[in-house]
Design brief:
- This protein is an alpha+beta fold and about 290 residues long.
- The chain has 7 helices and 12 strands.
- It folds into 2 domains: about 30-130, Nuclear Transport Factor 2, Chain: A (Roll); about 165-289, Deoxyribonuclease I, Chain A.
- Helix content is about 30%, strand content about 30%.
- Strands 1, 2, 3, 4 and 5 form a 5-stranded antiparallel β-sheet that branches.
Length: about 290
């Protein structure tokens, strides 16, 4: 009787052990399921939950949040490629497409790696999972760059005007504009109007200088003086002299805008020869208030 009971108990133990082995085999999580879980959470915007599916939850959570913030809270679409397992490791291609506010879509591919420990698959955390060129000291980010202003060219397709320069003196911004008007009178008139229109968008103290190909008494200089004053005339009290070409012609000027002129006072103006041009340079000193 004792022997039969012992055999029965042994049989039960064996059967239960077999059931345990079968259950463990059937419920073991495939690498693909772990990868899909991470991708689903990340694409849904739940960076913290996605990080918990990795082997470094704290570092992953901080990095995933930082990268999403760097892309202005962009939405993410992630497509997982085929997961290839080898022993306790697995890899897959991950296609990512960010929808970045005010910028648009940006897509690329990266690699997702997993490892198995204690019968559990986890995504191996690395900054390169977010982008192949990232490391622990870098993140994704956006930068807004305005479109460059189109060039204004003369008839020989040379730039007529350049981007303005801004000089800050004692906390006051002084805008400096430069032009070179054409010798053809029709072209010169059109260029001058474009130059004046362009300068009107900048408020505050402004200096406009350059080769205007015009004598002080001609229409073009009069047109400029509707919005600017001649620095040479202000300092010397006369339109005469100030020759910048061949010692007899005055084509080069420094003008001060009427707008904000109380904050920009000319204190000196002279002409100086230079090897940088066939024209002499007009130089002036201003007091900025």
């Amino acid at each position: 009787m004792f022997a039969r009971i012992s055999a029965l108990v042994a049989l039960v133990v064996v059967v239960l052990a077999g059931a345990f082995v079968v259950q463990r085999t059937l419920t073991a999580e495939p690498a693909e399921d772990a990868a899909k879980l991470f991708v689903k959470r990340w694409a849904a915007g739940d960076d913290a939950a996605a990080a918990r599916a990795t082997d470094a939850p704290k570092a992953a959570a901080a990095a995933l949040r930082a990268n999403r913030r760097g892309l202005d809270g962009a939405g993410l679409k992630a497509v997982l490629g085929e997961v290839e397992e080898s022993d306790n490791a697995a890899t897959a291609t991950l296609s990512l497409r960010w929808d970045i506010p005010r910028i648009g879509r940006w897509g690329y591919r990266t690699r997702l790696s997993l490892r198995k420990a204690d019968d559990e698959w986890r995504v191996r955390w690395s900054p390169k999972l977010v982008h192949p060129k990232l490391n622990r000291l870098t993140r994704l980010g956006t930068a807004a760059a305005p479109k460059p202003r189109g060039e204004i060219l003369d008839r020989d397709r040379r730039p007529l005007m350049r981007e303005r320069a801004v000089v800050r003196v004692g906390g006051v911004d002084v805008t400096v504009l430069n032009a070179h008007l054409d010798w053809d009178t029709g072209m010169r008139s059109a260029q001058l109007e474009a130059f004046l229109s362009w300068g009107q968008q900048f408020g505050g103290p402004r200096i406009a200088g350059g080769d205007f190909n015009s004598w002080w008494g001609e229409w073009w200089i009069g047109r400029i003086e509707a919005e600017y004053s001649d620095t040479w005339e202000y300092v010397t009290g006369s339109d005469e002299n100030g020759h910048t070409l061949n010692g007899a012609v005055r084509f080069d000027y420094l003008f001060r805008a009427h707008d904000g002129n109380t904050r920009l006072i000319p204190t000196g103006c002279w002409v100086q020869s230079t090897s940088l041009s066939d024209h002499a340079a007009v130089i002036a000193d201003y007091t900025v208030r």
